Amino acid sequence: MAGVLSNQLDKKLSLKTKTVGEERIKRAKERNEDVAILSMEIPGEKSNFRCCLGEECLQGDATSLSLGTKKMEYKTRQWHEKCFCCCVCKVPIGTQSFIPREQEIYCAKCYEEKFATRCIKCNKVITSGGVTYKNEPWHRECFTCTHCSKSLAGERFTSRDEKPYCAECFGELFAKRCFACNKPITGIGGTKFISFEDRHWHNDCFFCASCRNSLVGRGFITDQDDIICPDCAKQKLL
């Protein structure tokens, strides 16, 4: 009997069904697939068996394989059938799929518990997709605005105190506000603005209070709360 393993979790844990039959085993070997073979000692057959568990062998003798006892072979190693078990939960693999890692054998459940990437927010396994923020993994559906819970995957966002916010919420909560229109100045996406003393304007809102011409890149004069261009300031003095 053979166990064929393809991609493991995160391209490692999509497990193929166990298959049986000598021809299938032969094909798997020819294709260099991962194969575990369950067989039985045949009378008269010379055996060089040694259970991979050594002193921890569940049969008590790592070199003993009596007639009728099944053995499991995987690559260059051998086990008694009941010794071929998950290194974490100790449950025999039997005909179930398994994942080898650094000389250890894991059942699919224990491998997932031990090695799978988990979302920093919900702590559940990320099986596909996901996003990374501050070097931490998130499900796309868990990566949301701290204030409104809108999904931020693929959206513009910024952060404050290490927490992500959508552009709209960040502007409403934390951004400077334009003195002319009172809307937030976020700076996200290259938005330009002008500051003077303790006041701020969007570029498009920075214009003369009298003639309404833009004052961006030009001199201006303050008239109480208004800003006016030099020409209009002269007209007011006449």
List the topology elements.
Elements: E1 2-5, H1 22-30, E2 34-40, E3 70-74, E4 77-80, E5 98-101, E6 104-107, H2 108-115, E7 131-133, E8 136-138, E9 157-160, E10 163-166, H3 167-174, E11 176-177, E12 184-185, E13 193-196, E14 199-202, E15 221-223, E16 226-228, H4 230-237
Antiparallel strand pairs: 1-2, 2-3, 3-4, 5-6, 7-8, 9-10, 11-12, 13-14, 15-16
Overview of the structural elements:
- The protein contains four helices and 16 strands.
- The protein has helices at residues 22-30, 108-115, 167-174, 230-237; strands at residues 2-5, 34-40, 70-74, 77-80, 98-101, 104-107, 131-133, 136-138, 157-160, 163-166, 176-177, 184-185, 193-196, 199-202, 221-223, 226-228.
- Strands 1-2-3-4 form a four-stranded antiparallel β-sheet, with helices on one face. A two-stranded antiparallel sheet has the order 5-6.
- β11 and β12 (184-185) form a beta hairpin.
- The chain is rod-shaped and about 120 Å long.
- The model is unreliable at 1-20 (pLDDT under 50).
- GO terms for molecular function: zinc ion binding.
- This is LIM zinc-binding domain-containing protein.
- It holds the Pfam family LIM.
How much helix is in the residues?
10-25%
- Shape, per Cα inertia axes: rod-shaped
Order of helices and strands: EHEEEEEHEEEEHEEEEEEH
Count of β-strands: 16
Distance between the termini: 103 Å
Query: Largest sheet, if any?
Result: 4 strands, antiparallel
Radius of gyration: 35 Å
From the helix content, strand content and strand pairing, which structural class follows? Answer: alpha+beta
Helix count? 4
Strand order of the largest sheet: 1-2-3-4
Beta-strand content estimate: 25-35%
Global mean pLDDT: 77
Contiguous uncertain segments of 5+ residues? 1-20
